[in-house]
Amino acid sequence: MLSGFIPIKSSVRKLERDPVIERTELSTNHILVYLEKVSIHLGQGWDRNTGTGTFGHISKKIWDSKVPRI
């Protein structure tokens, strides 16, 4: 998650209604989105939580949940 930002819960609920999304898991520092297939755009909204002044890097991890990770 970007430093100083929190997810907008209503936008996460909106994602859950998308037919390609199997489920979501939300915590204070990350959102896990389980997809049936990968689409070009996910409409996720963000609110700025604190004034950090600088932005940190964001990481995204994509893996096939049906294939065991080593």
TrEMBL record:
<dbReference type="Pfam" id="PF07677">
    <property type="entry name" value="A2M_recep"/>
</dbReference>
<dbReference type="InterPro" id="IPR009048">
    <property type="entry name" value="A-macroglobulin_rcpt-bd"/>
</dbReference>
<dbReference type="GO" id="GO:0005576">
    <property type="term" value="C:extracellular region"/>
</dbReference>
<feature type="domain" description="Alpha-macroglobulin receptor-binding">
    <location>
        <begin position="1"/>
        <end position="39"/>
    </location>
</feature>
<protein>
    <recommendedName>
        <fullName>Alpha-macroglobulin receptor-binding domain-containing protein</fullName>
    </recommendedName>
</protein>
<dbReference type="InterPro" id="IPR036595">
    <property type="entry name" value="A-macroglobulin_rcpt-bd_sf"/>
</dbReference>
